[in-house]
């Protein structure tokens, strides 16, 4: 009896995205790499999207249903079902360019020491590619291993650059670090996983925009009308402290301070300065004065910060609409990423 072991298992968490799921699955079927399986994990959808996924005309695609438990639990369910040595994750309202899998699998084959490979995105809502923005924040092109000398802002940028729909990872590494945060987490459920990988193993980076994001459809990672949730590793700092190599403990604490400052500023904007003050007290000290947003966080975590946030929200800050450039043709992106070689 023949058994089939795919090269990569692709996990698609699905929750009420009937309008987008067919295009998402079609973008997977159009990959230049054909040796894959697709596991769609329906997380309790009520809009018929599960039926669309179940009827997708390709035997490599299968559907699993579960009660609603959040995106982290849905992805972890797919990880348990996966049969391939590599894992990829695509949200049910986003799409990949045709060379996505080929580019990442080639980078991981060239760098067997790397735990994962991540690439840039193209925002379909705003039409603005992100590679230049990430390069300015210190994201390297190629393989990178974090050291004690890595600036906290670069470590933070790399952790933010790595999102489920932009990463291909070795299955063993995802399982080694416990997969995605669950506990009904609805924000940054992937952040702890990527941070653990970065602390312990090299990661490959490509600035080619190989994923098309549809932020307009996202209800979890954006479009907030109030303060967003706190990152899991800030809620429980032992998630990273408990596994951090001793040589990188200083970097981790600077990273915590930087992220705490950013989140405190967010709380201040929404008038919840007391929550920001609690984060600052837990993670930030005067020795972190060089970190970005240190001073705004210090001011924001006071009654003045709450007043200033209320004033800004009352006035309203409108940004001029950015010009929408023509999307980069898929064939051109394949050449940039090295697809088809």
Beta-strand segment tally: 9
CATH architecture of the largest domain, please?
Answer: Alpha-Beta Complex
- Spatial gap, N to C terminus: 34 Å
Give the overall average pLDDT.
88
Approximately what portion of the residues adopt beta-strand conformation? 15-25%
Structural class: alpha/beta
Instruction: Characterize the biggest β-sheet.
Output: 9 strands, mixed
* Form type: globular
Supply the CATH class of the largest domain.
Answer: Alpha Beta
How many domains, in number, for the residues?
2
Radius of gyration computed on alpha carbons:
20 Å
- Helical residues, percent: 40-55%
How are the secondary structure elements laid out?
Layout: E1 8-14, H1 21-29, E2 36-43, H2 49-54, E3 61-66, H3 71-81, E4 86-89, E5 95-96, H4 100-110, E6 116-123, H5 131-136, E7 142-144, H6 152-161, E8 167-170, H7 171-176, H8 191-200, E9 203-213, H9 232-235, H10 238-241, H11 249-269, H12 273-283, H13 294-300, H14 303-315, H15 330-337
Parallel strand pairs: 1-2, 1-4, 2-3, 6-9
Antiparallel strand pairs: 4-8, 5-9, 6-8, 7-9
Describe the protein's architecture and organization.
This protein is an alpha/beta fold. It folds into 2 domains: about 10-215, Spore Coat Polysaccharide Biosynthesis Protein SpsA, Chain A (Alpha-Beta Complex), CATH 3.90.550.10; about 245-315. The protein is about 40% helix and about 15% strand. The chain has helices spanning about 20-30, 50-55, 70-80, 100-110, 130-135, 150-160, 170-175, 190-200, 230-235, 240, 250-270, 275-285, 295-300, 305-315, 330-335; strands at about 10-15, 35-45, 60-65, 85-90, 95, 115-125, 140-145, 165-170, 205-215. Strands 1, 2, 3, 4, 5, 6, 7, 8 and 9 form a 9-stranded mixed β-sheet that branches. The longest helix is centred in the last third of the chain and has 21 residues, at about 250-270. Residues about 320-340 have low confidence and may be disordered.
